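Board notes (copied after class):
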Amino acid sequence: MDEIRGDEIQGDEIRGTARGTAPVPLSVLDLVTVGQGRTASQALRTGVEIARLAERRGFHRYWVAEHHSMPGVASSSPAVILAHTAARTERIRLGSGGVMLPNHAPLVIAEQFGTLEAMAPGRVDLGLGRAPGTDGATAAALRRTDRLNEGADDFPQQLMELTRFLDDDFPDGHPYARIHAVPGPVQATAEGGVQSPARPPVWLLGSSGFSARLAGVLGLPFAFAHHFSAQNTVPALELYRDSFKPSTVLDAPYALIGVAALAADDEREARRQVLTGALSMLRLRSGRPGLVPTPEEAEAYAFSPMEREFVDNWLVNIVHGTPDEVRSGLDDLAKRTGADELMITANAHSGEARLRSYGLIADAYGMPEL
């Protein structure tokens, strides 16, 4: 595979700064969850509130993830959400965690994120995944094909095509050599052009070794989904570091991990809140996706032995409790994995609980108001 270029991208746009006593930079992954009795409009407004709080308290970036056909998740269109959020923030980096590349034509993604870069120069990340972000039937509807393995198998080729659109550097004779992603670098080279040639840094996302190795070989930053594949975290990060080759993007590996974490004023309240997300995940894995249940419904739910085992195993990987307990859990995770950044996702029924959690975590680390 050709080298990923991005000549104008500097590692400083990728690497974050730890605030307060946090062991590494902290960031936010927002699934824009919709609880029972709540609307998507409310969830999206909460997302902006979370991004603004994260910006004030020194979290490094705010990402949203592409999901489809899930009533409890309102993040099907990351580019639209990020445009809305960019207009209501000033400094925090904004990005996709991620856009599922096989669901889209590379040119469309290049144009969407070129537009975002023009709206918020120097603040946009393009995180890419190769999973569909949904079930097979919905993926087929998105892609207009039932050959779903083709998209994942072609991921490296799609990635290279997308990168060439972002850099506007298809070689002479290529069928796309005269096609330009706009907004983009072509506007800097056109007569009278003053557009910055910079474009969003590309991240690879994954929950297995495939993207870890590919990110390493290409010298790209890597984001691992620890929040739903915890058993693979350390092997994937080791594979990424062992495979890493310095590039014009990074001179050394940089990996963040997504972490499910929720802080509350006491342990019982934290348990009540995370149980709502666990029950929601149980229903999703059972083919019954729905809105995130209330804490009352989750507490009253009659779990079968098999369901209880699933929920208990799920909750083991969620860092939750008082602010001090969550801080300790995050510190331990950073030390155990060697992650360069922790991206926290707080899943609960209410937006208020999620906002409260991010504020408490910032307080626990003494992250100052910026």
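Comment from the instructor: The beta strands are 26-30, 61-64, 93-100, 124-129, 202-206, 222-224, 255-263, 319-321, 341-345. The chain has a mean pLDDT of 92.
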